[in-house]
Design goal:
By secondary structure, the chain is α+β, with helices and mostly antiparallel strands. The chain is built from 1 helix and 8 strands.
């Protein structure tokens, strides 16, 4: 009879150790890996070039952000993983808590910024380490179709960040 309580204890310990891994596996199976073109509704994709930018007439005066392109409402609430470059907005020398995620290096720094559906406002409550933000990275989090206006640009999406991962193109 003394063996039964020990077996139950071992069984409970094993289950408690496996549960977080099973939850992580479940979360990973629900993870939607996106490319920037996926943020553009299919019926509008022919209006953008291969970089996800609308055609621009450079002959005019000051160029403004194109408001062309809407968001994909069906992505709202999805857990996503998307690569991009970071433009820090809020944080300190060690951690950034808010930033813009953009599809190519220099976006929003050079005029004009990409259209709103090609810029994601990212919030990390716990902060993300600054040293990982100078190269292309993956951001994993919950995507929301929400317009946010910052000093640099209007965004069509918001991600509540869960984690940052190193980029691999494989």
């Amino acid at each position: 009879m003394k063996i039964l309580p020990k077996l139950v204890g071992i069984l409970l310990l094993t289950i408690s150790m496996l549960t977080p891994h099973m939850a992580l596996a479940q979360d990973e199976s629900d993870l939607l890996k996106l490319d920037w073109i996926d943020l553009i509704p299919e019926k509008e994709r022919n209006q953008f070039d291969v970089m996800g930018m609308p055609a621009i007439d450079h002959s005019g005066a000051a160029m403004e952000q194109s408001k062309l392109g809407s968001v994909r409402q069906e992505l709202n609430g999805s857990t996503v993983k998307i690569p991009g470059f970071v433009i820090p907005l809020e944080g300190d020398e060690d951690m950034v808590t808010e930033f813009l995620l953009v599809p190519y290096f220099g976006a929003c720094i050079h005029v004009p910024p990409p259209p709103p559906n090609q810029i994601i406002y990212v919030k990390f409550k716990q902060g993300a380490p600054v040293h990982r933000l100078w190269d292309v990275i993956y951001v994993v989090g919950t995507l929301k179709t929400e317009t946010i206006n910052s000093e640099l640009a209007e965004t069509g999406y918001l991600i509540d960040g869960i984690r940052i991962e190193d980029y691999d193109d494989g």
